[in-house]
Specification:
two-stranded antiparallel sheet, mainly alpha, 8 helices, elongated, single chain
Amino acid sequence: MGFSPPVTVSESGGAFDGRTPILENVYSENTPDERPTMESPSAVATDPEAAPTPPSFKERLQRRLLNLHPAVWPVGLGVVGLAGATLLHFVDPNEPGNYPTCPWLLLTGTFCPGCGTMRAVALTTHGDFLGAISMNPLLLFLVPYVLWTYGSWLVRSIRPPKRHPKLTPGWFLWLMGITITAFWILRNLPWFSFLAPGTPLLPTW
């Protein structure tokens, strides 16, 4: 006598035997209107083939800045510097009202390390180098370093070096900071009034 597997009745009312696999319709309990479709918001949001969102203004701006040639920055800074020097050449900073007063001088009544720089640049554009030094003697030491740094930056942007450039030594930065601070203090003392803007360093000047 052969063995016959028991017949089981499913919840939907159909009968199947043990040799038939159970195939349940996952949508059997849903009406056609309730079944999820590809047009549903959840399906559209998770669709990998959906159109990408356009980049924001900030992202587009960053992309444009990264695509600029490296020489744009030093050249642009040089153009701004030349424009400022041209303005100082034709609009005399010695005349009151042409430019705002130094905020530090206005609040404290003492000179900051940069006081006299605008007048020094204006005098330089007119060829009066001794008068420019008397306006701010610190420029006599800072201008060579600034020009060397700017020139190195410009050359590296046009012809990138094969090796990373060496950093400025720490002792030099400390020396520069100490020099600027000492100049700031000394030019406000009566014994070093020759460091104040407009005072000749030597009597013959």
